[in-house]
Amino acid sequence: MQTSPWFRLAAALCLAASCGIAAAGPRVLRLGIGLPAASVQGQAVQDFAERVARYSGGSLAIELHAGGQLGNDLSMVGALRAGTLEMSCPDSATLAGLEPGFSAINYPFTFFSETEADAVLDGSWGKQLLSRLPAHQLLGLAYWENGFRHLTNSRRPLLGVADFAGVRMRTMQNPMLVESFRKLGFDAVPMPFPQVYDALREQRVDGQENPLPTIVASRFYEVQRYLTLSRHVYSAHVLLVGKKAWDALDAAQQTALQRAAGESRDFERRLSRDSNERALAELKQRGMQVTVIARPDAERIRNRLRDVLEKYHHEIGPALVIEMYVQLGRLRMASAP
Fold first, then answer.
1. Greatest Cα-to-Cα distance within the chain, rounded to the nearest angstrom
2. Rounded to two decimals, what is the model's pTM?
3. What confidence tens digit (pLDDT) does each residue in 139-173 have?
4. Domain-embedded: residue 8
5. CA–CA separation, 315 vs 45, rounded Å?
6. Taking the alpha carbons of 213, 218, 220, 221 in that order, is the dihedral positive or negative?
7. Helix (H) or strand (E) segment spanning residue 253
8. Span 27-58, pLDDT tens digits
9. Is residue 17 part of a domain?
C-alpha cells in the first residue's frame, strides 16, 4: 500500500516535533546557596527539587549549586535581579539593602521561640515584606529557617558585655547587625559567608555567629574553641526566584513552584529543629567549651542596643516595627497560662 506524500510529510513533522520536545527536556532553574549541600538548607533544596519535578509534571528541574559556587548571597541576589540566575535562598538580612523592613527580622532578642517566628513570618507581617520584592525584580516564595544564631570564638568564653570587648566577630553584611555588635564592644567584621572558614583559620577574625547546624556543617569546630548559646538573633532564609525567570514560566509551573516552596518550608523547619540538639551534642563531642547567656543577661544586652534599634525603627518605618511587636504581644498573651 502506498502512502500519501502529505501523510509522509505530516508524520515526519510530528516525529521532528516530538524529538525536539524530548531533546529540550525540562526547563532548568539553577538555585544557588552559600551553605554546603550537606547543610539543612542544602537538604531542603533537594527536597524542593523533587517536589518541583513532581508537581510540574517534569517540565521543571531545580539544579542545586551549593557552597558559594555561584557567589555570595549579595552577588546571587544581584544575579537574580539581572536575570542571570534563576533562584537563590539568602539570609533575610541580605535583602535589607533593598527593603529595610527585612532588618526587623534580625532585631536582637526579639523572638522568644520558633513558634513566634513562624506565626509572624507566615502571617500578614511577613507577607507584607514579600509583597515589596517584585519592585526589585524578585519574588519571595517562602520563609525557610536559618534558626537562632549563637556565638563562637577562639579567644575566651563570652558570658556578657564585659567579655565582648575587642573580639573580632564576623557578622552578616547587614548594617544594623554590624552597628549592634560594635555597640556591644565587638570589633565587628562584615564578611560573605563563603569566606568565613578561611578567615577563622587564618585568624583574621576571632569568631562568628550562626545557627548550630550551620556551625557543624561548616566545620567551624575545627577552628573555634568556645561556643556561647546566646540565641541573640532569629535568622530566616527567603526562597527567591528572579522576576525574569518567574515571568518565563507558565501558570501551571508557577503554581508548582509555590506549592513545592510551602511544603519544603515545613520540611526544612522540621529538619532544622531536629538537627539543633544533634548539632549541640556533636559540638560538645568535638571539644567545644559551651556556655549560656542567661535571660536576665540577654535583657541587659538588649537594653544597651536601644539607641541602635530606635534609629532603625525610623529607617524601616515605625508602623511596620510596631505591627511586628503588636503581633508578638498578641501571640504571647494567647499563650500565657
1. 96
2. 0.81
3. 999 999 999 999 999 999 998 899 999 999 999 88
4. no
5. 33
6. positive
7. helix 251-285
8. 999 999 998 898 899 999 999 999 999 999 99
9. no
